[in-house]
Amino acid sequence: MTQPGPDGRSPRQPQQPPPHQQPLRRIPDPGFDGDTGEVEAELASALASYAADAGAGWPSVLAALRGSRLLVPVVAVLGEVEHDEAGLAHDKSSDMASVLLRGADGRLGLLAFSGSRPLQAWNPEARPVPVPARVAAQSALQDGAAALVVDVAGPVTVVVEGEDLQGLALGWRVARVGDRVAWIRPGPE
Fold it and tell me: For residue 64, which of 34, 36, 44 has the smallest C-alpha distance?
């Protein structure tokens, strides 16, 4: 029950404008305006170097990934099923989920793709979610995955795991130290 206002009358509730006159809601920009789904040039070059010589190309791949956009696939996963009077199953609900792949060793890897063509080669029904590689690495760790698997269907597959996955997730810079890779935590800006 509402209390009367100082003039003794009931206060009026503010009226909402009709739905067609309400301001439009905006979906937040993921930060990839104008993204065509192509593999970014620096990452494509690094992947080509890695394909030619994995050892020599690995630092370039990590450096390119650090600033790259990846496409994390989401697929429909059947939720509840209902059966009709003939006993046939029908989808009652479904959810969208990112994809974790279990390797032969039992460890999980979060799938991500460098561009829309490699994603479509893997599964044409998957929907791309563009994210910075750092966010994909963070998601892999949050999901309990041991790796981020980039371009599982090729043309060049890259598996980022261990310290490299941690460094990528933290946004650290990669440096070549002899024939190895080291991650450097950025200083304060």
Answer: 44
Distance CA 103, CA 78 (A): 23
Residue 81 tokens read as 């099923």
Model pLDDT for residues 92-130, shown as the tens digit of each residue: 666 778 899 999 999 999 999 999 999 999 999 999 999
CB 162 within 8 A of CB 154: no
- Name residue 57's amino acid: G
Residues β-bridged to residue 161? 147
| Tokens representing residue 96 in the block | 């969208």
pLDDT in tens, 34-49: 889 999 999 999 999 9
* CA-based R_g, the chain, Å: 24
- Dist. CA 23–CA 20, nearest whole Å: 8
| Residue appearing with tokens 């024939």 | 179
Region 143-171: mean pLDDT is: 97
- Closest listed residue to residue 146, CA positions, set 104, 184, 114, 178: 104
